[in-house]
Amino acid sequence: MEVIFYTRNRCPLCVDAKLILQHLQKEYAFQIIERDIERSDEWTEKYGLMIPVVEIDGEVVQFGMIDHFTIEEKLNHL
What we know:
Elements: E1 2-7, H1 12-24, E2 31-36, H2 41-47, E3 53-56, E4 59-63, H3 68-76
Parallel strand pairs: 1-2
Antiparallel strand pairs: 1-3, 3-4
């Protein structure tokens, strides 16, 4: 399974979110696909005000303040 993680440089919330995802990888089998929104005009337009963004199974699960519980709930229901 893949978890898409939209991020950008100099984003403290992104650092925290990535740590949460890495912690959850210890319990759940998934790969983090990190996408820097500054590499794509489309991503910047779509997610510029929302980052960090966590997308699982094609669905944006959470953005902004990412928490362990919400992401884990989604992973449990896949």
